[in-house]
Amino acid sequence: MASGSTVLPGQSLGLLANNNGGPGTHIHGDRVFASVAGIVTSTPSTSKSSKTPTLSITRPSGALLPEVGTTILGKITRTNPRQANISILAIYINGEPLCSEPFPALIRQQDVRATEIDKVKIAESFRVGDVVRAVVISLGDERSYYLSTAKNELGVVMAVSEAGNQMYPVSWKEFQDPDSGLKEARKVAKPL
Amino acid sequence: MQADRRRLNAPAGGTTPPTFAASPNQTPPRPTRSRKPDEHRKIFLRSGIVPSASGSAYYEIPPQSPKQQDSLLIPQSSSLKITCTVHGPRPLPRNAAFSPNLLLSTHVKFAPFATRTRRGYVRDAAERDLGVHLETALRGVVIGERWPKSGCEVVITVLEGEEDGWWGDARSGQGGGKAGGWGLMGVLAGCVTVASAALVDAGIDCVDLVTGGVAAVVQDGDGPSNDGIVVVDPTPSQHSEIRAACVVGYLQSRDEVTEMWMKGDAGLHAESLVDSAVKAASLARIVLAEVVKEAVEAKMSIGLGTSNTNGSVREAEGKQKDVVMTG
């Protein structure tokens, strides 16, 4: 199957002996078949054990669901002493990042940062309305995905002060309101 | 059917405008089938018509021969117009239990103006039954375990449905066949094909393209009753008696049938009836494959920004080529 050609669901892409099945494909018998309609791409293998290239199909519409390990952007909807509820609005995979439907998720107290996790106070890390960059760590329970901000690049990206002004980050734990000069505590994401 | 008490309903009756009654001597001739027994009517199929839904498609079998329309204002035989939207995968509601697979829900509704006698706004038993058959056909094709904790809703609206028999028969008092409901089988075949196009448009993982095909055992001509012949894609108004009919949902690359619904007494023709329905599904798949390919190429060219303005790209999409359905 030539890389770059359009394939339909059910179309055979090659033998399982010569190819691995990547996203957008499924395996039936001894062959790899397409599961979605799109353009097929073949990436050479990066693992030491299998030398065969991986066939994957890019969906024209982009990611549909958050998967474990993907970075997402969301907005805090609710806070508790133990967790912060967040609504996932965008997923960073190839294609259109915006979700058609917001997904409910939460960040637990122990997943906010990597050090001193038992001393974390949610009120000093997140407030309702903050835009947060986080990574999905688990599918969670029936209501929410579980997210983590325990890295330097993860955390609050945009925040509004209590006076209503857009704030700028000044350190890993503080935002500052430019008009009043007051600082507020958040778990701040390192600017890229 | 339960009375719909929440709305002020229109008077029950026909959907065609009232005309002068024709005299009983002047019954117009029954339309006859001019196609070969293994020839399908032309299908129009287009996907991506509803921008706000995850996936959508429109399926139409246009009226075939206009020359039988000379004497009457009432159309001699109905055509088929179905639209489908797919919403999903989207998160399940708050009180739903955790589900490791995709929860597929189908919803089929006839518009009130879809058939010669007006239908209600509330779903009746026949529409719920069609929804169950459609879910059976789609469940065998969707790879559910890739979408945990999500639901997908397939909503089908039939804008014009096939009728069960010729309207002239009802006027003169003869039935259209031993069992009724032949039009619903043609509608189900169209629903399976259009739902498949919409699911692929939404990007949901499918094992193959499933298509619906319908075939029937009809009386051969107006002579004395004999064994009957098997025809593909029957128009119920063109046959004086339909003995049996069968709808299948068929996967061509695996040669598997996901859904089968047979009605009536097929007698000796039972196996060839199923084979003909499978053949009808294969003919419809040719059209579906072409439509899906064109849609992917159109989306890719929009994504790469090779169009100057949005208007010119949409114009190019409108010029679809005719695909010849060969067996």
TrEMBL record, chain A:
Domain (Exosome complex component N-terminal) ranges: 7-41
Any matching Pfam family: ECR1_N
Origin superkingdom: Eukaryota
GO annotation, cellular component aspect: cytoplasm; nuclear exosome (RNase complex); nucleolus
Main location group: nucleus
UniProt KW keywords: Cytoplasm, Exosome
Example GO BP: RNA processing
The UniProt record lists the keyword Cytoplasm: yes
Database matches in PANTHER family: 3'-5' EXORIBONUCLEASE CSL4-RELATED (PTHR12686), EXOSOME COMPLEX COMPONENT CSL4 (PTHR12686:SF8)
Annotated ranges, domain Exosome complex component CSL4 C-terminal: 101-139
Localisation per UniProt entry: Nucleus, Nucleolus
Name of the molecule in the record: S1 motif domain-containing protein
Record GO terms (molecular function): RNA binding
InterPro entries xref list: Csl4, EXOSC1_C, Exosome_cplx_N_dom, NA-bd_OB-fold
UniProtKB/TrEMBL annotation, chain B:
Molecular function GO terms recorded: RNA binding
Location (main, coarse): cytoplasm
GO cellular component: cytoplasmic exosome (RNase complex); nuclear exosome (RNase complex); nucleolus
Keyword Electron transport listed: no
Compositional bias of kind Polar residues: 16-25
GO BP: any one term: U4 snRNA 3'-end processing
Compartments, as annotated in UniProt: Cytoplasm; Nucleus
InterPro entries, sorted: ExoRNase_PH_dom1 (IPR001247), ExoRNase_PH_dom2_sf (IPR036345), PNPase/RNase_PH_dom_sf (IPR027408), Ribosomal_Su5_D2-typ_SF (IPR020568), RNase_PH (IPR050080)
Basic and acidic residues bias: start-end ranges: 314-327
Domain (Exoribonuclease phosphorolytic): residue spans on this chain: 39-204
Keyword RNA-binding belongs to the record: yes
Start and end residues of each stretch annotated as Disordered: 1-41, 308-327
Annotated keywords: Cytoplasm, Exosome, Nucleus, RNA-binding, rRNA processing
Family the UniProt entry places it in: Belongs to the RNase PH family.
Record-given protein name: Exoribonuclease phosphorolytic domain-containing protein
Species for this entry: Meristemomyces frigidus
